[in-house]
Structure formats: structure tokens, C-alpha cells
Design goal:
The protein is mainly alpha-helical. A hairpin with a 4-residue loop joins β1 and β2. α1 runs antiparallel to α2. The termini are far apart.
Length: 112
Amino acid sequence: MSRGVFGGLLSLVLVMALAHYLARERFPQSGTGAANDPVDTASDVRCGANQQVMATVIASYRVSHQGENPARLSDLVPQYVAAIPSCPKGGAYAYDRRAGTVSCPNGHRTMP
């Protein structure tokens, strides 16, 4: 694995860990299920972070493959990402090969 890819993967792992830590610190698990529940908000944040990570991984793939998007998300494992994440509320992300984007089955949007 080249240094650039390794450095990029290390950065992605650090970003994911930081997002997870911040979500847990800011939104502790209350489990109430009520509207504006911190658990729901934390799931939204983690889902958005997952989608951003996947966007970065797909962009890295494009750089290495003359601008082509991967045919399927599984093509990214293990060279670009250890495993394909899923929404914290359940379900696999949908992948649009033409656009090179992932979307949440639960309607979460990526973080700005």
C-alpha cells in the first residue's frame, strides 16, 4: 500500500473515531425515544460522518482509477476501507455508481 493511501486511511480512521467520540460526549445515551432525543441526534451525526467517510473513500478510489467510480461499495474493501459502514439506526447505505454517492436508508443527510 502506498504512503499516500495509508496516510489517507489513517486520516479517515481518526476522523471516524473523533466523530464517534464527540457524538458520545455531546449526546449521551438516554434511550427515551422522545422527539429531539439525544440518541436520535447522535445517530444522525454518526450517520452523516459515515457518509462523509464513504464520500472520501470513493474520491480516493477515483483518483487511483482514472476518475472511475467503484462498481460497488465492496470494491473498496480492504484497500480503501476496512469495512463498509451502515446507518446506526440500521440498514445498508444505497450506492449510486453514476454519481459516486451513498445515501441513508433512513433518510439521514450528510453533515455540511
